[in-house]
Amino acid sequence: MKIAVVILNWNGKKLLEQFLPSVIAYSNRAEIYVIDNASTDNSVLFLQKNYPEIKLIRLDKNYGYAGGYNKGLQHINADILALINSDLEVTPGWLQPVIQEFEQYDETAIVQPKIKDYQNKNKFEYAGAAGGFIDLFGYPYCDGRILSKVEEDQGQYNRRKEIFWASGACFFIRKPVFDQLEGFDESFFAHQEEIDLCWRAHHKSYKTIYIPQSTVYHMGGASLQSQNPFKTYLNFRNNLLMLLKNLPVSMIFPVIFIRLMLDGLAGIIFVIQGKPQHTWAIVKAHFGFYKRIPEAWQRRPDKPVTDYYQTFSIFIKKMIK
Prior knowledge:
Blueprint lengths: L2 E7 L3 H13 L4 E7 L6 H8 L4 E4 L5 H10 L6 E5 L3 E3 L5 H9 L3 E10 L14 E3 L5 E3 L2 E2 L2 E2 L10 E3 L6 E5 H6 L12 H11 L3 E12 L10 H18 L2 H24 L3 H16 L1 H6 L10 H12 L1
Parallel strand pairs: 1-2, 1-4, 2-3, 6-13
Antiparallel strand pairs: 4-12, 5-13, 6-12, 7-8, 9-10, 11-13
Helix pairs in contact: 6-7, 7-8, 7-9, 8-9
């Protein structure tokens, strides 16, 4: 089974200097690629000089996470794609349990390892933790993290399990499945495109699996900090687009209507917190969503599934605890 470890880079020279050595040291079975989104910080020169063995794919402009991977992966021939952020530290043996999962279970299309905090290695990391789910209204959450609360890793999530979505920080997918699903939705640009892709895979009866025997450490927020209003804009807009694309028709209006009300409440909270730029980002996100409704509708699957309710029941049980 041929595996490609693929890093998407945009002006991440310092991150490559810090994290690339672990990827090279512990990825013996894989070919390593860097897709460069037209960086201007000498990232390309750094790679060419110090890591000539790494296969470099150079794009003509910054296509974001979704478009960058879609365009770059067209040039990669592999059975399994390991898409990792440039601020990710991998560990010895991180690939073996994932490869075994793909070899043993044909229905497994996507895999996420255990993702922990690079700066506090006893804790899970916000972006992915121990595998992702969504609640009834489409809000993403993870085992190991609900809202802003992140748990310490005490072995409570040390069992293989099916999840609803895998984090784009470290995202394994079969290349034929990625191609069948036509990759990430490039209209998202960045943020939540991996959740959308997992949901679309779910429509095709593919499984997304969490493998705790593989561990990585993610710095998080290296490319776009949480206090950046553009990140707020992308998250609110893309989440609405994802719901429109994937919910059963009967659920679209009630769920999205409630979400719009909740988004408005979030905007009020931002004002109270003295962050009006984030409130304005939500307003722009809603108009960005309205603008893209026709395009998103055309991308809906023929037969959306409804059993994402299973993830909501898990959410309720966690809140009761």
